[in-house]
Amino acid sequence: MIMRIFQVIIRPGKEEEFARFFHETAIPLMKRTKGIVQILPGAPLADSPREFSFVMVWDNLEALKEFVGEDYASPHVDPAEAELVESRTIKHYDLVR
After folding, report:
1. Any idea where the domains of the chain sit in the sequence?
2. Record's InterPro entries (predicted)?
3. What's the pTM value of the predicted model, to 2 decimals?
């Protein structure tokens, strides 16, 4: 299994708009995506109010590539979030059991 950690920093003043997108669009989308075993969405804490994250566990690398394409190391960005996000990071790991 593959663990994918996706983190974003939101543009100042866009926190509420992104929070709506995160809860109403991103989380439901990921929950129904084929190949995902588990998602762990992370909302900001008071000391980092512009940071959101997703930890996703995928069945395998092929399932992840089906969703994001061959260039799985690049963050997959929904057009609705593009103008809200200042920066993104993404990391992948083999899940240790």
Report:
1. 2-94
2. Dimeric_a/b-barrel
3. 0.88
Backbone Cα Rg of the chain: 13
In this structure, how many other beta carbons lie within 10 angstroms of the beta carbon of residue 44? Answer: 17
Per-residue confidence (pLDDT) for residue 32, from 0 to 100: 94
Cα 7 to chain centroid, rounded: 6
pLDDT of res. 48: 93
DSSP, collapsed to helix, strand or coil, labels residue 50 as coil
Taking each continuous run of H as one helix and of E as one strand, the counts in the chain are: 4, 4
SS3 73: coil
Contact 44, 50 (CB under 8 A): yes
Question: Is-contact 3 63, C-beta < 8 A?
Answer: no
What three-state secondary structure class fits 29? helix
